[in-house]
Amino acid sequence: MRPSAPADPAQLRQEAEEFLRLYHREESGAGDPAARIAAVRAEIDTTGTYRHTADELAHGARVAWRNSNRCIGRLYWRSLRVRDRRDVRDAETVAAESAAHLREATNGGRIRPVITVFAPDAPGRPGPRIWNEQLVRYAGYTGDGGRCTGDPRNAGITAYATGLGWPGGPGTPFDVLPLVLQGSDDKPRWFGLPDDAVHEVFLRHPEDDWFAALGLRWHAVPAISNMCLEIGGICYAAAPFNGWYMGTEIGARDLADTDRYDLLPVVAARLGLDTSTDRTLWKDRALVELNRAVLHSFDSAGVTVTDHHTESRRFLAHLEQEAGRGRRVGADWSWIVPPISGAATPVFHRTYDTVQACPRFVHHPDALARARGEEAVPGAAPVTGPIQPIQPI
């Protein structure tokens, strides 16, 4: 059962008032919030919910990015482009607008931070849902013995989409998944993304020609699509948003984690490293070269990407900027510190408060379950047994 209503009226009135006071305090020219608060309270009393103005929505979305404890790239939170699609509830239009979001965000390779906000949950009527973790993800096909071709993280949603009738892709390690979408009043369905909406970068190494033969690639826009945007008590469950990639997200996690593409042994073997013991630091050496390949490839393709050293300095600039405005910055150390060379970055050598402020982006348990394809669909094969990463050529 999907939630279909905001908080109880008393709680909703309180959260709405807190947000409206924040908005009027931070936005020059907004004036005294009293009249707007009174109007919203009356709207809640009458309808059980209320509607943000376009300016309130834009500010709320940007502040939610500013408040994201796990994001290191918040310095440019005010640059977020807000696509107001709150009148969209049907799956077909959500699919079309999601593709349009990717085109606008890609911007010919000069990635722009974008959020598209679809209809919110309302009393008796839930908003639409995007099941996928990101708008662009690669399929994970589970075969005999639990072996996976593609991205094991997406094995569940791949099986789910297949159960809905998706015929699957050509069976490569990098088949783009369809979107699994659910309109306000219907069941989940799959929608293929148009080719022109998905920009990919083929990975090559700056010196080692053999790297290209691995056939690796990655998509240009990291558009998170299963988090709820919460503004003033209103839940926008479908609100895909993106910044741009930090290279380590791809090179040190997506391609390197043992439960993802697990490429460190492959790269180490091609480098001729001694993998007989961890003490040779072969994993570390392979990890650096894999990350060099990601940065080199994105740069060569003219696609925006940042590195963990630059982004760490930018995050400290963000902290200083926010402190100058009298605002506390929440941060999760385990996410802010990069997954390689942590101690070589300035964000490592300090602590952070984990305070969670509103507006915010939230992972709800039901959304996490949907991203794993855990709701039953007639004909969908269950995902069982261990998932083994592939070994690319």
General description of the model:
The protein is α+β, with helices and mostly antiparallel strands. The chain is built from eleven helices and 16 strands. A four-stranded mixed beta sheet has the order 1-2-13-10, with helices on both faces. The longest helix is centred in the last third of the chain and has 20 residues.
Keywords:
393 residues, alpha+beta, three-stranded antiparallel sheet, globular, disordered N terminus, disordered C terminus
From the spread of the alpha carbons, the general shape counts as globular
Tell me the series of helices and strands, N- to C-terminal: HHHEHEEEEHEEEEEEEEEHHHEHHEH
Structural class: alpha+beta
Largest sheet: 4 strands, mixed
Radius of gyration: 22 Å
Mean pLDDT: 93
Stretches where pLDDT is under 50 for at least 5 consecutive residues are 1-5, 376-393
Short description:
With 393 residues, the protein is an alpha+beta fold. It has helices at residues 9-26, 34-47, 54-66, 91-106, 155-163, 247-254, 264-271, 282-301, 308-324, 333-336, 365-371, and strands spanning 81-85, 114-118, 129-130, 140-142, 148-150, 179-182, 189-191, 200-202, 217-219, 223-224, 228-231, 234-236, 241-242, 245-246, 305-306, 360-362.
